[in-house]
Every structure is written in C-alpha cells, then in structure tokens.
Amino acid sequence: MHEPRAIFITGGGSGIGRAVALRFAAEDWLVGIADIDEAGMVETAAQLPQGHTSLHLLDVRDRDKWDRSLAEFAKFSGGRLDVMFNNAGIGLGGPFQHAAKHEIDALIDINLRGMMYGAHAAHPYLAATAGSCLLNMASASALYGSAGLAVYSATKYGIRGLSEALDVEWGPSGIKVRCLFPSFVDTPMLAGTPGSSEDSKRDRVLKSGAKLTPVEEVAQHAWQAVHGSRLHVLVGKAARSLAFKARWRPHKLRTVVRG
C-alpha cells in the first residue's frame, strides 16, 4: 500500500497556507496545519478530507514550540516530512522612518527568524524522508526592494538568501529547497495595516492598476515548485516582469520606482 506523503504548513489558518493545504490534500497528502489562529486552523481543517489533517498551535518565534509541533506531526505522519512549507508571515506598509520599533521587531522575528527556526527544526525530518523539500515563501519584494515596504523587503531578501544557501548546503543530502516569489496576492494580509487610518493595502494596490494573484494560483505554483527543478519560482506576471527588469534593466527600474 502506498504510504501517503506529508506536508507541514505554517500560516495554514488562512490565505496562501489554506490554499496550499487544499491543493496538496487533493493529491491525498497528509497535511499539518500550524498557525497562531486556532479558529482559522479549524476552518481550514473543515475543508480537508477527514483523517488527513493535524492541527498545531504554533507561534513561529518560539523555537522550542517548533520542536514540539514537528514531533507531534511526525507521530501523525508516521515520521514522514516530505515538504516543510515556511509560509507564515506578516506585512507592514508605510515610510520606514514612521515604523515603530515593535513593528520592525515583529516583522523580523516572524518573517525571518521564524522561517529560519522552521528550516532548522525541520531538517532532521526532511533528511530522513527521501526526496523531501523545504519550500520558503519570499515575495516579489525580494526581487527589488519595494518603497513603503522597506522592512518587509529586507526580511524577504533574507529568506531568498537563506534559500539559496540551503539549496547548496542541503542538496548533497537529498533535500530540495524552493523559494516562491509572488507579487500581490489576494489574502487577509492586504486587508490593512494595524492601527492605520489609511486605505487598506488592497485598495492601494487596486488603485495603482496592479492585479491581485489568486491564492489558488500560488498554491498551484507551490505544487509545481515541489515537483520541479527551479530554486526561484516566480508567481504571476508582475513578478516575472520585475525579475526581468531587476536582472537586465536595473538602472531603468531604479528610475521608474523612484518616480
């Protein structure tokens, strides 16, 4: 009998994490849903096949909790961890000089430190599972730094660097590393900046003429990334365009983004 493969997803209570859970569950994978939003995890689990899901209340900033959550999932999956999807993250927009210390700290702790903890904690399980993959969520903001998203861009550049380094380090042991670079995705993260009276980030994106990428498209790219050979996986037309300009026309791109 074929042993089902297993994926552990942070930020699985909504948005991209939920869409990826649905995509992999549709292929009969076991799915571990991790989030700080317990109600969201329950909502995600309700949409997945019964008996194929385990829930893990996890703050990705807590390294010890990472160990406990992955150990719990390993018991559920029979020891398998085919894919570790480092997805949980937060966003913050606005001029860098107006960002409060606690906002900067939160972005760095969740978006960068939390993903580093995830990769570090998952390594023994990935190394023990043939053909495994570490899948990290970066952003188009890691292709060229985004004005108004300085700290966010910095954290995503960090994830890009982490992914590139581990792709080299872990390749000989059979662990694939993949990194997703979506542009603006229609998720709760675009609902608005906490404490801000301005238009939501979603409204500002739409007013700029940019198109939002559906979470289902990101989930399909996640599936393809795990089964493909590319380290950098660009999601959406805007991300592909930005990557091209950043590589081949950086001086022109700099002029454009500066207005």
UniProtKB/TrEMBL annotation:
**Keywords assigned:** Oxidoreductase
Q: Which NCBIfam families match?
A: PRK08267.1
Q: What is this protein called?
A: SDR family oxidoreductase
Specify one Pfam family.
Answer: adh_short
Give the species this sequence originates from: Sphingobium indicum
Upper lineage: Bacteria, Pseudomonadati, Pseudomonadota, Alphaproteobacteria, Sphingomonadales
Q: What is a GO molecular function of this protein?
A: oxidoreductase activity
Look up keyword Cell cycle and say if it applies. Answer: no
Instruction: Tell me its family.
Output: Belongs to the short-chain dehydrogenases/reductases (SDR) family.
SUPFAM superfamilies for this protein: NAD(P)-binding Rossmann-fold domains (SSF51735)
